[in-house]
Amino acid sequence: MVRVPKLTRAAVAQATRNPLLCIAERWTPSPRTVRRAAMSAVVMAVLIVVTGGAVRLTGSGLGCPTWPKCTDESLTATSAMGFHGAIEFGNRMLTYVLCAAVGWTIIAARSAKPWRRSLTRLGWAQFWVVMGNAVLGGIVVLVGLNPYTVAAHFLLSTALLTVAVLTWQRVREGDAEPRPLVGKAVSQLTWLLTVAAGLLIAVGTVVTGAGRHAGDSSDVHRIPLDWKMIAQLHADLAWVVVALTVALWFVLKAVDAPGGPQRRTRDLFLVLMAQGVIGYVQYFTDTPEILVGLHMLGSCLVWIAVLRVLLSLRERPSAVASVPGPAAEQPEPAAAG
Description:
By secondary structure, this protein is mainly α. Helices cover 68% and strands 1% of the residues.
C-alpha cells in the first residue's frame, strides 16, 4: 500500500496559490513522459487543423450560427441542427482536448527535475495561442466565414504547430548554448527555404479563400481574385520550395554535413513530393473534398518537416555545471631543527 500524504491547511493554501508548484513537489515525470506530453500537443495541433478543414469541406462552418454558444438559446448543438451542427460543435469540443494536451505539456515540463523554465514558457506560449485562436474562431463565425478571418484562423493554427514542434524538439535537447553543425551559408539557405515554405502556406490560404469551398451552403463572400491565377502562383512557390530543398540536400552532402540534417532534408523532399501529387490531382479533378482535406493535412506535415530541417542544423547539449578540481596538496612544513 502506498501511503497517501496528509494534506494540511498550509498545503491546501499553497496548492490554491500555485497549483503547478504543488504538483511539481509531489510528482516527477520521467523524460519519456515529458516527451510524450510534448508530442501529444503536436498531434492535437495537427488534428485541430484537419477537423477544422472537415468543418469547412462539409459546409458546416455555420452549423452553430453564433459564438460562444451554439445558438442564442442553446450552449450545445441540438438534434434539429442535424449533421452540420454536430460537426461544428464537435470541432469546438475538440479545442478542449487540445487544451488538455497543452496543459499536460505545461504540467510535465514544470514537474520535471531539474526544472527547465524555457520549456514551461513554451508550454504557456502554446496555451495563449490556443486561447487567441479560439476567440478568432468565434469571430470567424460571427462575421459569417469571412475568408480573410478564415485565413488568419488557419495561420494562427500554423503558429501553434510551430511552437508545439519547437517544444517537442527542446524537450529532447539540453539548455546549453546552441552549437551550429553547418556553416553560415548552409544556415542562410535553410532560412530561405523556411521563408519560402511559409509563403507557400500563406498563399495556400488565399487559394482556399478564393476557391469554391466556402464552408457553408449559403452565399459566403470569397476573396475577389482569379482562382486559377492564385493557384498557379501557389504551384510556382511549391516548385521554388522543392528546388531549395534539393539544393540544400546536395549542399549538405557536398560539405559532408552530419547525418541528421541530411535525413531531415530527405524526409522533407519526400513529403513535398506526396503533397505535390495531391495538389495537382485535386486541381485537375475540380478540388474534391477528400483531396482538399488530405492537402490540408499535408500542409501541416510539410511545415513540420521544414521546422525539423531548420532545428537539425544545431545541437544543444545539456548544460553541465563545472565542478572544481581537487585542491592542490600543500607541502608539509619542514620539521623544526
